[in-house]
Amino acid sequence: GAMNAQTSLVESYLDDLSKYTKKHPLVRLQRIFRSIPGIIGNRVKYVNLSRDEQSRDIREALDLLVIAGITIPIFHSDATGLPLSAEEDRASFKLLFMDIGLAMRVLGHDWSEMQLLSDDSLVNEGPLAEQFVGQELIASSSSRERVNLNFWKRDKAQSSAEVDYILEIGSKIFAVEVKAGPSGSMRSLHQFMLKNEKLNDLSLRLHLSKPTLTRVSHSVLNSEGEGVPVNYRLLSLPLYMASE
Length: 244
Known about the structure:
Blueprint: H1 2-16, H2 26-35, H3 46-49, H4 55-67, E1 71-77, E2 88-97, H5 100-107, H6 111-114, H7 119-122, H8 126-139, E3 149-154, E4 161-169, E5 172-178, H9 187-196, E6 202-207, E7 212-221, E8 227-238
Parallel strand pairs: 1-3, 5-6, 6-8
Antiparallel strand pairs: 1-2, 3-4, 4-5, 7-8
């Protein structure tokens, strides 16, 4: 039933890529199409999308898939002010697939099998949760334009960190941490809030537990490796409330 329909849709998309083969071989586009679901949640390295091909060719092919709506890029932003897009690093990005069900079909997953997983098993399905939340953010947007998604990262030896989504709502920046299980480390969120709490002292966590609003007080390492206090409010919501 549903799985057959998904398989048929995936095959239709793969066949449809022949429209874009004026400059790129069909096999390259199809290979990249099939590779994207496997790297959701990870920063893109071109070699993971298509080995033995030039980065420029892969980048151009990806641009076509973005225009076609098959994949959605999430660009890194330093998030030190508004708009977030002004501080985008377009060389550092992650990708979402067009649909969570089709992503699972490309990966060979069966939804009925996924429903049988325990919460502990779902912890290993973080990319699936990120895909779900990204789709919900896009679908719930009131904008007629394509939604711009961002994430935040810091690559420092003693205080590296990455926050799944950074949202621009009104005049505030919201950090959104996505957890596939009921809990998990909040270290990256602490790092972001240490840098950003003057812009907004409220952050969001989407996970498997009930809604809560708590005050977080924690000691974290700053960029110099010194322990400093961070204080902020944390609104935790179940994943299914992402669109709210």
